[in-house]
Predict the structure.
Amino acid sequence: MTNCLIGYNNKLDTGTVVASSDPAATPKENCYDWQLFDYWQPAAATSHTLDIDMASAVAVDYFAFYSSDLYLQAGATVKLYSGSSNPATTLVDTITPTTRGPKFKAVTTSTLRYWRITIATTGSYDPKMQLVALGARLEIEKGLRTGFAPPAIGARNIPSNSIGQTGLFLGRSLRSSPVNFKLSMTNLTAAWIRTNWPALLTHIEQYPFWLLPEPDSYTDEAVIAWTSGKIAQPVYSNYALMDINLALEAFA
């Protein structure tokens, strides 16, 4: 069984990225700046590419993206390629988005210098790509704790009721908000904590990260999460075992 996966080490941050189309108003850098309010939007076409040169071979075992509109294009695909020459031509995996929300895929580990991401649509289209990532995933050492609330199926809207002077119900409005949840990682070995926590902490202090809670059963329940409030430090819970409890918000 595969435990909860975290994707935070985005290799696009350090590689040299060349886009098939790079408009000044919506440049390629927008899709790997860890922000959701901006996006890369290439000029309308049936195929768009991002070619990445890592300068040296790097290990990649996850591929993720968020596009606010690509799922509306029936048959649209996002593919990851790897290679030892540029452009990369060996297909690693394919994601076909059919629903809105972040997409995350654990892929077979490859260690190569060149990578290519292609977006293909059935007709000429200029998709909005808010985030694109590939890198090394982190699998939590132990399974999810009882009481975990999957953020992908959490409530995102806060209802507000309108009541008339006589107390009658007049209607309801909804205000969207992030999903709030807690990720409790318990009974982790001290060795696992000391190997993985420092790099993860450095990232989550500044940026969001990808989270796929149940990779084996619910592959389409990835979210983009970020910490809420103070980040609690790991604590010993049992002899030689430690816990980490993170208060998080997420976009599903």
About this structure: The domain at 5-138 is CATH 2.60.120.260 (Jelly Rolls).
